[in-house]
Amino acid sequence: MARPLDSDPASHSYECRSCGYRYEPAEGVAKLGIVRGTPFSTLPDNFLCLVCRSPKAAFVDVGPQNRPSGFTQNLNYGLGVNRLTPGQKTILIFGGLVLAAAFLLSFYSLH
């Protein structure tokens, strides 16, 4: 049986509801001395948003950083594209555009 996507809460990202800043546990915050891999739940209670200075209570759990985007029940559709992370989808889209442009420019080399 497959593990659920949200299986490890310590790896979840948290987003500030006021300004949209995201705390990523995998990255930490070097400016504040918070090392990589520090879960949001272990941050001090006086932790403030780096952008708007909102308190820790203003952050909401948005799930794992590299989870596939979209609804869980739809992940098995779409020829596997629905299982890609947002970053992978971006690379796929812009990679396809660059490839199409390269093919279009290659027609100039034909006589």
Write up this protein.
It holds the Pfam family Rubredoxin. The protein starts with 11 loop residues before the first strand and ends in a 5-residue tail after the last helix. The longest helix is centred in the last third of the chain and has 21 residues, at 86-106. With 111 residues, it is an alpha+beta fold. A hairpin with a 5-residue loop joins strand 1 (12-16) and strand 2. Helices cover 19% and strands 12% of the residues. It folds into 2 domains: 13-65, Rubrerythrin, domain 2 (Single Sheet), CATH 2.20.28.10; 69-111. It is built from 1 helix and 3 strands; from the N terminus they run E-E-E-H. The protein is elongated and about 70 Å long. A 3-stranded antiparallel β-sheet has the order 2-1-3, with no helix packed on it.
What would the keywords be for this entry?
single chain, about 110 residues, alpha+beta, Rubrerythrin, domain 2, 2 domains, 3-stranded antiparallel sheet, 1 helix, Rubredoxin_dom
Distance between the termini: 57 Å
Assign the CATH topology of the largest domain.
Rubrerythrin, domain 2
CATH architecture of the largest domain: Single Sheet
Q: How many separate structural domains?
A: 2
How are strands sequenced across the largest beta sheet? 2-1-3
What is the H/E string? EEEH
Number of helices: 1
How would you describe the shape?
elongated
Strand content: 5-15%
Family: Belongs to the rubredoxin family.
Domain Rubredoxin-like: 11-62
GO molecular function, one term: electron transfer activity
Keywords: Electron transport, Iron, Membrane, Metal-binding, Transmembrane, Transmembrane helix, Transport
